[in-house]
């Protein structure tokens, strides 16, 4: 019987080795340990054994039972682990491989084209020694108008329909408004530094206007200012041409006309030929073939004074680029309203660099 038990043990180990699924292993176990199993049969035979034989065979048979239970438990654990590992292997995400990212399969947007262009312009100006400034959306009359040589009775206030936070008729001091242009940052920039200096300031502006293909109530500008000694219109034109060449990566047709803005003297309108219709006339250029893109001029002495700068010692130029229009020209977008639509199908067409 002892020999039988020994050979059963070896036999079980051999049989177990070739099995790899849970059901078959449990079946094998019951073939040995079940009521009519091989080990149980041997134990039944103990009835006919002598007392001495029982002393040896009993513990041995129980040992075999334990051994089999142990082997089965270990084997089942091993199989479970293999299953988990296989699952993990299958669901593995390689974060260094963009195509594998599950995020890629989701409906996603891209970097807004305005952000792309803004970054490019910032790079161009940073390389020419300009700083990049920011300013608040909610402004007061001083920064939006007075310091820019637009007193309260000036007709130029009507050029920019303003969103007021308070009744514009009241005499309340410091009436708040949503800035109508980024020129407000000229005032803040001047007051915070000493000449010579140069900076640009991109930002969102607000006007209480009817919207159409080329007008939005909420749109974006990029202001620029350079103040120092003996700055000329020639310097202004040089910087404007450099900017346009870098942005369009080609020479674009431009024209310079006199333009009136209270904060510059002389003031200019720099137009570019409409790139949507190539100058033929469309809804974006209002059938003129030209798009007003870069109003600019030499900073008015009153503006320098309001900024704490002596106009007898220093002068400078300023410009207010229509950022959204530039984006439209660059990418051939024929309606400004696409830009704020929040439509992912629109955004996902533009590539980040
Ligand atoms: N602030 C003007 C506007 O929104 C644009 C402008 C014109 C800015 C001439 C300037 C400038 O800096 O010199 O209409």
Task: Break the fold down into its secondary structure elements and pairings.
Elements: H1 2-17, H2 22-33, H3 38-44, H4 51-90, H5 113-127, E1 131-132, E2 138-140, H6 141-144, E3 176-178, H7 184-192, E4 197-206, E5 218-228, H8 233-248, E6 254-258, E7 264-273, E8 290-299, H9 301-306, E9 315-322, H10 323-331, H11 344-347
Helix pairs in contact: 1-4, 2-4, 5-10
Bound molecules: 3,4-dihydroxyphenylalanine (DAH).
Largest beta-sheet details: 7 strands, mixed
**CATH T-level topology of the largest domain:** BirA Bifunctional Protein, domain 2
Strand order of the largest sheet: 1-4-5-9-8-7-6
Tell me the CATH architecture of the largest domain. 2-Layer Sandwich
Helix-strand string: HHHHHEEHEHEEHEEEHEHH
Which ligands, by name, code or SMILES, are bound? 3,4-dihydroxyphenylalanine
Span of the ends, CA to CA:
81 Å
Q: For this structure, what is the CATH class of the largest domain? A: Alpha Beta
Instruction: Please identify the structural class as seen in this structure.
Output: alpha+beta
Rg over CA atoms, rounded to whole Å, is 41 Å
* Residue windows where pLDDT falls under 50 for at least 5 positions: none
pLDDT averaged over residues:
88
**Judging from the principal axes of the Cα atoms, what is the shape?**
rod-shaped
> What's the total count of β strands?
9
Task: Please indicate the count of domains.
Answer: 2
- The CATH homologous superfamily of the largest domain is named Bira Bifunctional Protein, Domain 2
Beta-strand content estimate: 15-25%
């Amino acid at each position: 019987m002892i020999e039988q038990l020994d050979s059963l043990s070896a036999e079980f180990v051999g049989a177990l080795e070739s099995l790899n699924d849970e059901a078959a292993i449990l079946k094998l176990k019951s073939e040995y340990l079940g009521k009519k199993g091989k080990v149980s049969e041997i134990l039944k035979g103990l009835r006919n054994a002598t007392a001495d034989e029982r002393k040896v065979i009993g513990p041995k048979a129980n040992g075999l039972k334990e051994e089999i239970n142990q082997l089965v438990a270990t084997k089942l654990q091993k199989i479970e682990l293999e299953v988990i590992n296989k699952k993990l292997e299958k669901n593995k995400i390689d974060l260094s491989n963009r195509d594998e990212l599950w995020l890629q399969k989701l409906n996603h947007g891209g970097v807004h084209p305005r952000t792309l262009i803004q970054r490019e312009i910032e790079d161009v100006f940073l390389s020419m020694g300009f700083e990049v400034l920011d300013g608040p959306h909610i402004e007061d009359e001083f920064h939006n108008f007075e310091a820019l040589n637009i007193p309260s009775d000036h007709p130029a206030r009507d050029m920019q329909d303003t969103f007021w936070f308070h009744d514009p008729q009241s005499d309340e001091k410091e009436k708040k408004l949503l800035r109508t242009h980024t020129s407000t940052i000229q005032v803040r920039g001047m007051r915070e530094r000493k000449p010579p200096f140069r900076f640009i300031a991109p930002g969102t502006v607000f006007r209480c206007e009817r919207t159409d293909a080329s007008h939005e109530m909420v749109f974006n500008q990029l202001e620029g200012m350079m103040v120092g000694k003996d700055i000329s219109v020639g310097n202004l034109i040089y910087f404007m041409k450099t900017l346009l060449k870098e942005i369009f990566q080609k020479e674009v047709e431009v024209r310079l006309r006199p333009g009136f803005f209270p904060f510059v003297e002389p003031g200019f309108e720099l137009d570019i030929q409409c790139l949507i219709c190539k100058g033929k006339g469309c809804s974006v250029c209002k059938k003129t073939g030209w798009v007003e893109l870069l109003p600019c001029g030499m900073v008015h002495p009153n503006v320098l004074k309001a900024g704490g700068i002596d106009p007898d010692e220093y002068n400078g130029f300023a410009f207010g680029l229509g950022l959204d229009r530039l984006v439209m020209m660059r990418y051939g977008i024929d309606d400004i309203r696409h830009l704020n639509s929040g439509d992912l199908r629109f955004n996902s067409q533009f590539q980040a660099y």
